[in-house]
Amino acid sequence: MKNAFTVDLEDWFCSHNLISEIKYEDWDNLEGRVTAPTLRLLELLKKYDCKATFFVLGWVADRYPELIQKIAIDGHEIASHGYSHKLLTGIAPSFFEEDLIKSVFAIERACGIKPAGYRAPAFTIVNSTKWAFGILKKLGFAYDSSVYPTNMHPDYGIGDAPLTIYSPQSGLTEIPLSCAVLFNKNIPCSGGAYLRFLPYFLYKQLVNNVIKSGRAYIFYIHPWEIDPEMPRVKLPALKAIRHYTNLASTFGKIERLLQDFEFTSLQNILTAEQIG
């Protein structure tokens, strides 16, 4: 069984962890650093002959079209991460729809591809924002990959959501983020900070737990998570620990994952699921 490798393509200052310190209106005044770590990821994926899904932020597509073109030329799937990285829990459905349409136009301008997949910033399709499914279907998206089926994070998660691929409504497929099941608890292990914090041998055990249950493992990473030289922002202690821990060792862990497991894009996972 193949697993999915996904990248949430945003710059270092787009992260929701920094939202209290850096406003959207200030992004253009900050040092853009998304290109170098993304190219590093592309080289790594090429080394292991791996095709991935890149959830592209529309704001990034408008400013770095050559980077989006490079990702597409390398054969990776281009999907949407919205335009302005606003959390769904803090916006109205009408804003979400406008932001999503804007992201589609930006991605099409950059590389000529209309995205079929979507991932919400910070996985914020939660119980209170399930209205997003209807808008995604209305706009012609084939699938979403935003639901984290866990109740172990303060900002996201739907604790009773299925662990496997499912349809939240007719015509739309949900590919949830991966959780290992230990002692009847859904332990999130899809990547990001979970990969950065845990020793690799423990992280690998969680991945194996997912695969042995018969599920495809869904991995994600942000380019800034392999950029230890990115600017530091003064944050509350816990947020700073969560955001800046182990940036220098993350790239090596990603390479070990590619050595130990077989990955492809979400679109390929979905196609295999439909054929099966």
Can you put this structure into words, describing what you see?
The protein has a single domain, classed as Alpha-Beta Barrel (TIM Barrel). Strands 1, 2, 3, 10 and 11 form a 5-stranded parallel β-sheet that branches. Strands 4-5-7-6 form a 4-stranded mixed β-sheet, with helices on one face. The chain has helices spanning 35-47, 58-63, 65-73, 93-111, 131-138, 193-197, 200-212, 237-244, 250-260, 266-275; strands spanning 3-9, 53-56, 77-80, 117-118, 143-144, 166-169, 172-174, 179-182, 185-188, 218-221, 263-264. The chain is of the alpha/beta class.
Write a compact overview of the structure shown.
The protein is of the alpha/beta class. The chain contains 10 helices and 11 strands.
Structural class: alpha/beta
Number of domains: 1
Task: Give the helices and strands as they follow along the chain.
Answer: EHEHHEHEHEEEEEHHEHHEH
- The span between the termini is 12 Å
The quaternary state of the protein chains shown equals: single chain
User: How many E strands?
Assistant: 11
Query: Any guess at the CATH architecture?
Result: Alpha-Beta Barrel
Instruction: Give a short account of the largest sheet.
Output: 5 strands, parallel
Beta-strand content bin:
5-15%
Shape: globular
Mean pLDDT: 96
The percent of residues in helical segments reads 25-40%
The parts where pLDDT drops under 50 for at least 5 residues are none
Per the CATH scheme, the topology name is TIM Barrel
CA radius of gyration is 17 Å
